[in-house]
Amino acid sequence: MKGPLFYAKILLFGEYGIIKDSKGLAIPYNFFKGALKTSNNLSDTAKKSNENLLKYYTYLSDTDNSIVHFRLDELKRDVQNGMYFDSSIPQGYGVGSSGALVAAIYDKYADDKITVLENLTRDKLLKLKGIFGMMESFFHGKSSGLDPLNSYLSLPILINSKDNLEPTGIPSQKEGKGAVFLLDSEQIGETEPMVSLFMNKMKNEGFRKMINEDFAKYTDACIDDFLHGNAKSLFGNVKQLSKVVLANFKPMIPKAFHKLWQHGIDSNAYYLKLCGSGGGGYILGFTPDYAKAQEILKNYKLELVYRF
Hints:
Blueprint: E1 6-13, E2 24-38, H1 44-61, H2 72-80, E3 83-87, H3 97-109, H4 122-140, H5 146-153, E4 157-161, E5 164-167, E6 179-184, H6 191-201, H7 205-228, H8 231-248, H9 258-267, E7 271-274, E8 282-287, H10 290-296, E9 302-307
Antiparallel strand pairs: 1-2, 2-3, 2-4, 4-5, 6-8, 6-9, 7-8
Helix pairs in contact: 1-2, 3-4, 3-5, 4-5, 7-8, 8-9
Protein name: Mevalonate kinase
GO molecular function: ATP binding; kinase activity
Organism: Aureibaculum algae
């Protein structure tokens, strides 16, 4: 038995800002994926996943089934028969490993599920996001539900605000020089402590002002440029966003990357930004010349996401 594939996600723009109701843009990333599988002979990794699924079954048994009803007996039976989540999505890397698992469980065990084939009204998207937020809270303490939503629908999603989401189209990739890429920090990042740190910073009036003004302004401009294919303007706005993040989110950027981050801004060869909550995992990069960026960053592992 092997279930359908669910892909990783990349929040191109909007990390932290979406917690405070500003814009975001998330895209599926099919380089990494996961599926539910069953085996009588589990490897150590599969066994660990199977044990976690049993804990997850217990968590779902205690949730409010007026929002969503799961066939829990079937889930329990499948877990006891050796079901696990077979995934290439790295955990703690900001690309939605728990989101893909949540999407897979909803797809297989939810009754009256909302599907990608129907007319996805705003109400249906918000309902799905709410269900997924509740389901993913098991992993992060608190979840927006956006990662599983992206993985489940496998569509780019534009977040206008907490209560206003829409599937969106992104310009098709070109064989240009420019690129979006992932840079591997080779450190695991944990979402919960980073989000707590952000919430504490939000108590500071100056930090709140920076989020509401500079951070939101450049994030919104980047999203607009990206969706409309304005590459030249996009790089200008990403550079400004990269500066704002380096100045105000230092604890979320692994120390070893502070200089590299600044070098990108100074040289205009690439611009870095957080991918997810930071603290490790992947760092997102934008460059007008991918070959040049690869040369400068040759000591690091890069993954190509999108070409301009």
